[in-house]
Design brief:
With about 150 residues, the chain is an alpha+beta fold. It has one domain: Chitinase A, domain 3 (Roll), CATH 3.10.50. The protein contains 3 helices and 6 strands; from the N terminus they run ααββββαββ. A 6-stranded antiparallel sheet has the order 1-2-5-6-3-4. It is globular and about 45 Å long. It starts with a helix and ends with a strand. The N terminus is likely disordered.
């Protein structure tokens, strides 16, 4: 039964990537897209995690950092790598950090209260290999965030 579930899940993941790319190919493409974007826009001082998340800290904020169990208030703007805006707010929104995409769970703790910067999130740490309402399957997401409070 477990094997059937795993095979079905893998089939869905692969079929959702598109006809020409496997999840591994999407991951490799995302890594190249992020590296190219950073180079083309002369962005310096980035930090890359072992998972492929890239963080640019503009303002570190307080020395105390949120944890996965924190309720976090942020303002943010989310764009695709081509610059298309898909989400954002200038009014703070509050949410449990453990209830959002992995890229935010890993990236927001780089910022303290009052901190800000940019998260470059590959699809594997965001919405994966399936289309979302305004986010195509396998998309790199770029979030400009400011941590207001936690």
């Amino acid at each position: 039964m477990r094997l059937l579930f795993l095979l079905t899940a893998m089939g869905i993941m692969i079929s959702s990537c598109g006809k020409d790319e496997t999840p591994m190919e999407v991951d490799a493409r995302n890594d190249r897209e992020i590296a190219d974007y950073i180079a083309e826009n002369n962005i310096t001082g980035t930090i890359e995690t072992a998972t492929g998340l890239v963080v640019k800290v503009d303002e570190e904020g307080s020395s105390e950092k949120p944890t996965l169990s924190s309720m976090v208030s942020v303002t943010y703007e989310g764009t695709l790598i081509n610059g298309d805006r898909f989400d954002g707010t200038s009014t703070p929104v509050t949410f449990p950090l453990n209830g959002v995409i992995f890229g935010w769970q890993q990236g927001i703790p780089f910022f303290g209260r009052g901190g800000s910067g940019t998260l470059f999130i590959p699809a594997r740490l965001a919405y994966g290999y399936r289309d979302r309402t305004s986010i195509p399957a396998g998309s790199v997401l770029i979030f400009d965030v400011e941590v207001i409070d936690f």
